[in-house]
Amino acid sequence: MEMYIDPHLHAVSRTTDDYEAMRKAGVVAIIEPAFWLGQPRTEVGSFKDYFSTLVGWERFRAKQFGIVHYCTIGLNSKEANNEALAEEVMELLPLYATKEGVVAIGEIGYDDQTAAEDKYYRLQLELAKEVELPVLIHTPHRDKKKGTTRSMDVSEEHGLPPHMVIVDHNNEETVKEVLDRGYWAAFTIYPHTKMGSNRMVEIVKKYGPERIIVDSAADWGISDPLAVPKTAALMRKHGIPEEHIRMTCYQNALTAYSQSGQMDESDWLNPEPIDQRLKHAGNSVLRGGQTPRVEGPSDYVEN
């Protein structure tokens, strides 16, 4: 059975059906970056509860469906523009950055490339150095090439080595510079926009598999939590070598984020058995009358 890692998926916005479908498709681990929820937050307590969900309930919920859950912690660029709130969030971040299962500071960087975004991006780069975690950079959707170059320039100003930085939301316009400068180049596969599976296949054909990472960034919008296994299947159809598929859809993400010391292949090769009778803070994934799923570590669902 093929194994995949989706290193950018906002599980808090997805259902248990998505977890079941990902498991059946071979997704063994996901990374959930802290991000914007669509509705701007107005109180620091909203961030505190959200970060607690990422390191607590969501980690438990994924395990109930046979998927290992990790996360990144950070102040996203869009909400960095509320400076009064951003100051309070910055005080929270060190408390969560060293929690179990946190594999990077992110996703951070630029949205509209404002002075406030620049300020909090730089502060979080310093935090990443302090806690010795990789950085996940969100590159802007507007004026992407300029924002991507600036993101790497600023990272280098703060002394972060490229091998500790994952630059996400790349496209054909940015990939060459990101790879040439030694960074990890991640791509979010969205239906109908940004980067699609067919374009991803062409990029892997052109640049090869080194330091390229495929992810879904599935969230509350129109997106696909199966984008990684579907893109892998399309690569096979187009004759891309199996080792290249493994690197772009599994190994590169593992290599990049395991630098945190929080992510290890043994986490899913020797998993705890699924036991939906368990509860987290008194809460279960089950609803009244449902039969809990209980299985051993060898009972993987076949594709």
TrEMBL record:
| A Pfam family matched in the record | TatD_DNase
Q: Which GO terms describe its molecular function?
A: hydrolase activity, acting on ester bonds; metal ion binding
Q: Which residues form a coiled coil?
A: none
* This protein's record includes keyword Transit peptide: no
Q: Which UniProt keywords apply?
A: Hydrolase, Metal-binding
Q: Where is this region: Disordered?
A: 281-303
Task: Indicate yes or no for the key word Nucleus.
Answer: no
Which family, according to UniProt? Answer: Belongs to the metallo-dependent hydrolases superfamily.
**What protein name does the entry list?**
TatD DNase family protein
